[in-house]
Design brief:
Radius of gyration: 19 Å
CATH class of the largest domain: Alpha Beta
CATH superfamily of the largest domain: Hotdog Thioesterase
Structural class: alpha+beta
Helix content: 10-25%
Shape: globular
CATH topology of the largest domain: Thiol Ester Dehydrase, Chain A
Strand order of the largest sheet: 1-2-4-5-6-3-9-12-11-10-8-7
CATH architecture of the largest domain: Roll
Number of strands: 12
Largest sheet: 12 strands, antiparallel
Order of helices and strands: HEEHEEEEHHEEHEEEE
Distance between the termini: 46 Å
Oligomer: single chain
Number of domains: 2
Strand content: 35-45%
Number of helices: 5
């Protein structure tokens, strides 16, 4: 198992403080705010640790309320909304400096049988036919400074193989859609909650970027970008340490916000997760609202 994945799994090992109270930390990195996928995954861990293991998560809905401070722990408070015969509902509040920074509501369901159909997976090259992320960006590294280069080539907990060159290598208008193969960078334990949390973490890595593609927005610092809300539906079992195709598209961008939709497919063609996110895409020259 790679050390970067070890670090991610350590982040998901929340410390129990009291009944329904957990504490999580952020990686020791130079970040301005906590990565949204991290706090979403940790909140899902907190919710799942209060639910019987025979009830996998089937959906979550979350709002990012304030930027998280990466220099102090995050306290996760779980509200056990309902324990029904088939469904269990949990609400999780992530707190720092005495204020809520993130709110998640998740629902868990016993395994049941019913009608079954799946959207068709896009016809794209498989991961074995594509270059690694490092190979994809190797020829462009000389364009970036030492710090950016070090960040780009560092080991990551999620291995990704985009079907096309990342948009920030040479920003130009392109359709608001992208396909990326993803998997954990190493073997994971068998706990289905861990696999769901790893995909929740990975789902926030590239999704909002999809809304910037028609506008040729790179990482120039001319836009403030941040996740606003995030929803996921878990349709079928999967392993996050096996290749998954993350098919992403953006139906709309307006009002300094972008909307993006993602479908995650197993290699056998079945859709396993659906993701929707709206995020802030604010031009830096525009004055921020006073409130």
């Amino acid at each position: 198992m790679g050390s970067a994945l070890d670090d991610l799994l350590d982040l998901l090992e929340l410390e129990p403080l009291e009944v329904n109270l957990f504490r999580g930390v952020s990686p020791d990195e130079d970040r301005q705010r906590v990565f949204g996928g991290q706090v979403a995954a940790q909140a899902l861990v907190a919710a799942g640790r209060t639910v019987e293991s025979d009830r996998p998560v089937h959906s979550l809905h979350a709002y990012f309320l304030r930027p998280g401070d990466p220099n102090i722990p995050i306290v996760f408070e779980v509200d056990r909304i309902r324990d029904g015969h088939s469904f269990t509902t949990r609400r999780v509040m992530a707190i720092q400096h005495g204020k809520a920074i993130f709110n998640l509501q998740a629902s868990f369901q016993i395994v049941e049988v019913g009608p079954d159909h799946s959207a068709e997976m896009p016809a794209v090259p498989g991961p074995d036919e594509l270059p690694t992320f490092r190979e994809r960006i190797e020829s462009s590294l000389e364009r970036f400074g030492p710090e950016t280069t070090e960040w780009l080539v560092r080991e990551r907990p999620i291995e990704s193989r985009p079907v096309d060159d990342p948009h920030w290598i040479a920003p130009s208008p392109r359709p608001a859609a992208q396909d990326v193969w993803i998997r954990a960078n190493g073997a994971l334990p068998d706990d289905p909650l861990v696999h769901a949390c790893v995909v929740a973490y990975a789902s926030d890595l590239t999704l909002l970027d999809t809304a910037t593609l028609p506008h040729a927005i790179g990482y120039s610092g001319n836009f403030m970008m941040a996740s606003l809300d995030h929803a996921m539906w878990f349709h079928r079992p999967f392993r996050a340490d096996e290749w998954l195709l993350y098919h992403q598209l953006s139906p709309s961008a307006s009002g300094a916000r972008g909307l993006a939709l993602g479908h995650v497919f197993r290699r056998d063609g079945d859709i396993v997760v659906t993701v929707m996110q709206e995020g802030l895409i604010r031009p830096m020259q525009a004055p921020a609202p006073s409130n």
